[in-house]
Every structure is written in C-alpha cells, then in structure tokens.
Design brief:
Mean pLDDT of chain A: 88
Helix content of chain B: 25-40%
Number of strands of chain A: 0
Number of helices of chain A: 2
Shape of chain A: elongated
Largest sheet of chain B: 8 strands, mixed
Low-confidence stretches of chain A: none
Structural class of chain A: mainly alpha
CATH topology of the largest domain in chain B: D-Maltodextrin-Binding Protein, domain 2
Shape of chain B: globular
Helix content of chain A: over 70%
Order of helices and strands of chain A: HH
Largest interface: A-B, 28 and 45 residues
Order of helices and strands of chain B: HHEHHEHEEHEHEHEEHEHHE
Strand content of chain B: 15-25%
CATH architecture of the largest domain in chain B: 3-Layer(aba) Sandwich
Number of domains of chain B: 3
Number of strands of chain B: 10
Distance between the termini of chain A: 48 Å
Strand content of chain A: under 5%
Oligomer: heterodimer
C-alpha cells in the first residue's frame, strides 16, 4: 500500500471511531432523559 | 519489520476508541433501561399486573356498595393517572365498573409499544402518566385524573384553556430520597438535601459518606416527583451541576411506592430524613417529614353525574380501604 493509501486508512479508522463515539454519546443523552432513575442508581458502580 | 510496524500503528487508535466507548458503556449505557421500548424494559409500573376485571390481577378487591351495570357503561367517567397511582384507580374501576368497560386496541392488552400500553380511546381506563394525562384531562379526553398536586405550569395550561379544575385529596404518600444500596450514607437532613440540590454540598464526604462527587439527579418538568421537589426547594434554584458530577454517586427522589412495591429492586435504598425512615408507620403517624397528598382531579364544567358520586365513594370507608390496602395512607 502506498503512503497515501495508508494515511487514508488511518484517517478512515479515526473518523469511524469519532462518529461511533459521538453516536454512542447521543444515545446516552437521549436514553438518560427517559430512563428509570431507580434502575440508573441501582446499577451504579461502587 | 518496518513494514509490520507500520501496519500495527492503527492498533492503538482502535484500542483508544474501544476503551473510551467501553468506559462510557460501563458508566452510563448499561444503566439506561428505559421507560420506552419493549415490554422487557424496566417500566415505572407494570400495568399488566394491575388490569381491572382480569384474573390474577394484583388489584385490591372489596365488596363495594356502589357498583354500575352494563347499562351505565357508556357514561361512566374515563379514569387516567400517574404511574404510581395505577394500582389505585385501576382498583376503583375493577370494583365499581362492569366488565367490558376496559378495552384494548386489537382486543387484548399489550405493553409492547412506544408508551407501553394499548388502551382503546373509548376505554374507561387510560394510562397516560402525569404529564400527558393532565393535558388529556384539560383537553376533555378523560374525566377523572389521579396524581399529586399539578405543577404551576400545568395549572397555567388549564387557565389558558379556560378550564377550572376541582382537586380532591384522596390519599397520602411519602416522598423519599434514595441512593445505591452500597452507598454508606443512610440518612440526610432536610437542610442537607436542600444544600445538595442547590449545589452548596457537592461531595458525599461532607455528609458522612465516601469521597465521591454527588450526582443530584432530577426528573423531567411536570412529573409528580419534580413538582413535589419544586415545593421542597421553594424559590431556591436547583438542578444545575458540574459535568464531573455525572461520574459521582447519585442521589435520587421519588414516591415511596415505586421503591417499596412497584419496582422490585434491591440495588437502591431509601434514606432517613431528619433521622426518620419512611416506613408505613412513620408515614401514618406523621413523623416522616415529607408527605405529599394525591388527588382525584376533574374539570368543574364536567357534567357527568357519576363523577361526584365516585369521588364521594372514594372518600368513603370503602374507597379509603382500597387506598390503604394498595399501600398508601388514607386521608381519613
């Protein structure tokens, strides 16, 4: 693979990672607003 | 060798995203069981266990002196209410209304849809919970609504619509604060609670607990819990917290019924307030400091003759017996 192709691959991995992480974050914000607060607190890590 | 090193270079990048998302999952995502979605989700109330006229229902059944026949069915008031009061008003329907007055879209009960239940539009029982249910009452889609005192915003909505409401207290319930079962704190004072929600106390160590930030959880505006919390905080602004607080240990509030019966979950514990634990005896004798009344609410211009009849019955020994046996404290 050429140097250019390799850079594109790394960039694609980075962009995919950012998009998936942002989607995960959006889901958390959306679901938090409608979640069972009792369950949310019961599953807290201690 | 150099070539292999180049191919391995993206691995730390992938690992970085995996670790970040893994942490997000462990801290938040796995705790977000929602009130929407499938029947398997954790719901505020398992309505399917409290269906009128169903065999095996958990509803309180008494020998009521007021009952209606199938001839009255068309004009019987439609009842709706908050999640915590489903077992109460469903029991009123079960004891007073004839079979066939509770109807479901498609003929049978299902809670596998967005809001959870499939009561038909002409069913005597509806379940829209506090916010949507109050709007339905004001808009004339239901006749009797059961909830804690409506919020100032809800009353304003009714006023804007030119609707006057009659609110009759029919029972009492404790408003409780709770934490994870592993949190070493067992109680707070009212002042500590106000200071926590006002942002003056931000770490559990300041109230005798672990050295962890306090995540003071609030509820959505207009809900029964949030309206009661508004009354506790009075004019003090609350609900704003630092971003770091969400990584801390949570403090939540709700009505006792959700924690003691409707949502069986051993992962949380209720806190004593001013040294008093919210058990039924302490609520009944008035020593627990935060008691909220709940109401039967109807439009004053609703001419359905059965409404005052039913409300009077709810306030009678029989109606109050249902309130008490369901797990609440009667007003008489």
């Amino acid at each position: 693979m050429s140097k250019k192709g390799y850079r594109r691959l790394v960039l694609a991995i980075f962009v995919t990672g950012i998009v998936l992480t942002l989607a995960h974050l959006c889901y958390i914000i959306y679901a938090y607003k409608q979640c069972s607060v009792i369950y949310f607190i019961a599953k807290e890590l201690w | 060798m150099e070539r292999r090193g180049r191919w391995l270079a993206p691995v730390p990048l992938v690992l970085f995203f995996v670790i970040i998302n893994g942490c997000m999952y462990a801290l938040f995502t796995r705790r977000l069981s929602n009130n929407f979605g499938s029947a398997a989700s954790v719901k505020m109330v398992d309505v399917g266990s409290y269906l009128p006229h169903e065999e095996g229902s958990k509803l309180v059944r008494i020998d009521a002196s007021l009952t209606y026949s199938a001839d009255d069915a068309a004009e019987l008031p439609k009842m709706d209410g908050a999640a915590a009061l489903v077992p109460v008003y469903a029991a009123f329907i079960d004891n007073l209304y004839p079979k066939g007055t509770v109807k479901y879209e498609g003929g049978t009960f299902s809670d596998d849809n967005y809001y959870g239940e499939n009561f038909a539009a002409d069913s005597a029982m509806q379940y829209n919970n506090t916010v949507r249910g109050f709007t339905a009452l004001v808009d004339g889609k239901t006749d009797l609504f059961f909830s804690v005192k409506p919020s100032a915003e809800q009353m304003k909505y009714a006023q804007e619509k030119g609707v006057e409401l009659v609110c009759v207290p029919i029972g009492r319930e404790a408003f409780v604060f709770f934490v994870n079962a592993d949190n070493p704190v067992d109680g707070l004072t009212m002042q500590q609670i106000r200071d926590i929600y006002a942002g003056k106390i931000t770490n559990w160590k300041d109230v005798g607990g672990a050295n962890r930030p306090i995540n003071a959880v609030t509820r959505y505006p207009g809900s029964g819990s949030q309206t009661t919390m508004d009354a506790i905080m009075k004019d003090t602004p609350y609900g704003r917290k630092s971003v770091l607080a969400v990584f801390g240990a949570s403090l939540g509030y709700s009505f006792r019924y959700y924690l003691s019966d409707m949502v069986a979950d051993s992962g949380v514990k209720m806190l004593s307030v001013n040294g008093v634990y919210p058990d039924a005896g302490r609520i009944r004798d008035g020593s627990y400091p935060i008691i909220a009344e709940f109401y039967a609410i109807y439009r004053s211009d609703n001419t359905n003759p059965h409404i005052p009849e039913i409300v009077d019955w709810i306030l009678s020994d029989e109606g109050q017996e249902i309130v008490g046996k369901t797990g609440y404290v009667s007003v008489r």
